[in-house]
Specification:
single chain; 200 residues; alpha/beta; CBS-domain; Histidine-containing Protein, Chain: A; 2 domains; three-stranded mixed sheet; 8 helices; CBS_dom; CBS domain; BON_dom; Diverse_CBS-Domain; Inosine-5'-monophosphate dehydrogenase
């Protein structure tokens, strides 16, 4: 069982600017590419900061001179790596309260960008793909159970589990199913033929 990586979901062609890029040019890029922020990079394509729509609006609302990317950007920049799981990236976004993460390679160079809208793709996974991952990876390979022991139904990302299992594996089973990319909830309709917890 593997969470999708940042590399799987990121946009590989990140729009970037240099520190000298003007306010007006940044605004034009945001509009032309229908994005909410751009990464500011140095001459080696290494991220220095990020300029967002909010930065532009705040600057104009304060009545200050428009400025350039170097004076408008938020820095230091919070970045992600291509090999990160999207779960890790989402937690970083949440903790930093940002909507986009520049993605850098081993040389610290910009290779893409991951946005919240990219993460939404996880919840658009086909129900069949989710079902197959639970049956093959969770039930068969991780828990070493026969796939016929459980019924796994998925509808709009909501998983319903039914069948007869040992009570002791239920918390693990539910946790693993909840961790599968695209799952929005798990309904437990399991029965316990062998209550192994009572024998301990």
């Amino acid at each position: 069982m593997r969470h999708r990586s940042v590399a799987d979901l990121m946009t590989p062609t990140a729009v970037s600017v240099v520190p000298g890029t003007t306010f007006k040019e940044i605004a034009r890029l945001l509009n032309d590419f229908d994005i909410t922020a751009v990464c500011v990079v140095d001459e080696s394509n290494r991220p220095l900061g990020v300029v967002s729509e909010a930065d532009l609006i705040r600057r104009r609302a304060a009545g200050a001179r428009p400025g350039t990317a170097g004076t408008l950007m938020s820095s230091p920049v919070v970045v992600a790596r291509p090999e990160w799981s999207v779960v890790r990236a989402a937690r970083v976004m949440e903790r930093a309260r940002i909507k986009r993460l520049p993605v850098i390679d081993d040389d610290e160079r910009l290779v893409g960008v991951l946005s919240r809208s990219d993460l939404v793709q996880l919840f658009l996974r086909r129900d069949r793909a989710i079902q197959e991952e639970i049956v093959e990876d969770v039930v068969t390979h991780t828990l070493m159970m026969s796939p016929s022991a459980l019924s796994v139904e998925v509808e709009d990302g909501r998983v319903t589990l039914s069948g007869t299992v040992r009570r002791s594996i239920v918390p693990v089973l539910l946790r693993l199913c909840n961790s599968v990319d695209g799952v929005v909830g798990v309904v437990d309709r399991l029965r316990y033929e062998d209550d192994d917890l009572l024998r301990k």
